[in-house]
Amino acid sequence: MKFPIHIERTEVSHLHEVDFNQLQFGKWYSDHMFVAEWRHGRWVDCHIIPFGNLPFSPASSALHYGQIIFEGMKAFRGPDGTPLLFRPEMNRLRFNLSAERMGMPTVPEALWHDALNELIWLDRRWIPQQEGASLYVRPFMFATDRFIGIRPTEFFKFIIITSPAGLYYSRPVKVLTMEHYVRAFPGGVGYAKAAGNYGATMLPLREALQQGYDQVLWLDGIERRYVQEIGTMNVFFVIDETVLTPELDGTILEGVTRDSLITLLKDKGIRVEERKIDINELIQAGREGRLQDAFGTGTAASVVAISEIRHRQNTVQLPPVEERSWWKQLKAELDGIKYGTRPDPYGWRVPVQSKLVAAVLN
Ligand code: COI
What we know:
Number of domains: 2
Bound molecules: 2-OXO-4-methylpentanoic acid
Order of helices and strands: EEEHEEEHHEEEHHEEEHEHEEEHEH
Number of strands: 17
Oligomer: single chain
CATH class of the largest domain: Alpha Beta
Structural class: alpha+beta
Strand content: 25-35%
Helix content: 10-25%
CATH topology of the largest domain: D-amino Acid Aminotransferase, Chain A, domain 1
């Protein structure tokens, strides 16, 4: 192993405390976590240790200036019990893209791969068997310099925690635009999974919830007209049998689910347009009955139908979800590949394999 991992196993497993039939997103955390340190230009001190609180300086620039990035991934239990990951290399590449944008070190392939595989293998009993459930995997990195001036930082922690999770959204979502807030703008960090992108949406989200909506449908920061994403998800619309999704212009997240759906759709010969989408075009198509489907996509959420879009005084009701085949079929196909119940012609499914835990601890 290029990055030797020291394993300290928990003495008390909390697995029996979890009601796997009542899983929510983010409520439970598995027994172990992975932790590595960046010091003097190198990744060192790689450990798998019992899940628990972390010691770090209250002067850390992560706490003061938000130098934190993260990823979202899932491990699935295949039909024969094998733990499966979905396109884990895509997450590494995006993690490193986020790291570069935030002035942080990148994570080499061997470290990413070994950390994920050994941790998930050790906690493989935490991967739910229930339909639609999975082990959510959250790699993240933050600056730990004990210094509250602003200067490029030199010390970081790279951590992975995992959480058995059910559906992020258990029903179709209602979204509304908000023109007085902006999520991302050209030259900013919209494409990165920077923690602050999500922190800054808490107030708008609260206002959306107060108005009876589930999420904000973000518009561009300049004209407040072009759709970007739904904060926790990328977004797709189907108009006149053509699938539309906002182009990757640096303000939206380069979603792994987004990319996978575009591939599935194109391989079926379906027309997909990645371009600027004017909110007024959607409202118009909705009025004329041409908006056939709308859905959000993301790792945590998978594929979720949108039931209503509001923009200013205009409300567009999508056709009833049961009558819409697009989102449902795409979700079924993608889930089939992820859970190993359908063929995977793309090689997206990656079995979790352990060298260390399997050899030493089992
Ligand atoms: C994911 O889909 O993994 C996300 O990052 C969304 C998360 C903020 C809940």
